[in-house]
Prior knowledge:
Elements: H1 2-5, H2 8-12, H3 19-22, H4 60-70, E1 77-80, H5 83-94, E2 101-104, H6 111-118, E3 122-125, H7 136-142, E4 147-153, H8 165-174, E5 178-182, E6 204-209, E7 222-225, H9 228-237, H10 245-256, H11 259-280, E8 285-288, E9 295-300, H12 303-312, E10 318-319, E11 329-333, H13 337-350
Parallel strand pairs: 2-3, 2-4, 4-5, 5-6
Antiparallel strand pairs: 1-7, 6-7, 8-9, 9-11, 10-11
Helix pairs in contact: 4-10, 5-6, 11-13
Bound molecules: pyridoxal-5'-phosphate.
Amino acid sequence: MIEKLVRPTIQTLQPYSSARDEFKQDGNTPLDDFVFLDANENSYGSAIGNYNRYPDPQQKELKRAVAHLKKVQPKQIFLGNGSDEAIDLLFRVFCEPKEDNVIILPPTYGMYEVAANINNVALQKISLTPDFQLDTPAILSAINANTKIIFVCSPNNPTANLIEPKSIEVLLEKFAGIVVVDEAYIDFSSATSWTQALAKYPNLVVLQTFSKLWGLAALRLGMAFASPEIIGYLNKVKPPYNINGVTQALALSALENSSQVENWKNTILVERELLVNSLEALPQVEKIYPSDANFVLVKIQNADAVYKELVNSQIVVRNRSKVTLCENCLRITIGTPEENTLLINTLKKLL
Ligand SMILES: Cc1ncc(COP(=O)(O)O)c(C=O)c1O
């Protein structure tokens, strides 16, 4: 069923075979005992350390660690240069330019639209309901023979709420194409990840990232979880060495030293509540939307002016006031206690 959804070009594509892919060791000789003259690297070394060799194109060691953490099989994991890379590759695998279309559910993460435009793939936009949930009947009636992917972001950016699992289930069951659930913020939510439903839904792709709770935005490491068949297609089209050696090594070491991560989560959730309480006490704040993420969406009088005044005070939040359903809204990331106090004190002065 998945094969039918894949662009014919990709089905028959002969992927690039790198030096490190072609070399298959059959004995038990340690890798260090081999002389590698197959990849035109600098055999003498590098100025800054052990970086003269190409990294593992399949990121086997890192995938083993991610598989353990996420309770999935390594063959259900694709690692990308940020989850943004996985979003782009999903278009390249499934969407024939100028022919196919995808459905996005605004207000939502902006990269789905940009990736569609880059790949010359038509977009259908079905707005979320006023309480930021899926308008399932409208989505289902928008689906046509060329609809290949529906992007659902849960918890959603910029609205911060979780999307009702039941409505995602309806899409997974009724839509014969790919349902992408982008869980970039799932680590801040108490909801079960959709990775646990992969065995049930062959058309499900779950995106997660090391850029948020894990504090590794600079490394650029995102994850896509799906059936081994879908992962195989993503691997077929990815650049051979898409995850660089430094990122692989540092991410592995973060996974081996993860004790801080749970503490950060707890601290961020406590700080979120404190920030929400302080914001609620400000007379100009009209609404704070419920959050399952490490940010809050705040409806505030004169959002544009407040945004500018905050910048003048050297505090940068995200102005979402031009986005449909987010009129007069600012998106505010939960900062450290000092940063949150500074924000509140500055807002009090402004207001
Ligand atoms: C919903 C969502 N998905 C994906 C991303 C991109 O994450 P990455 O840093 O892994 O590319 C973001 C970043 O803000 C996001 O908000």
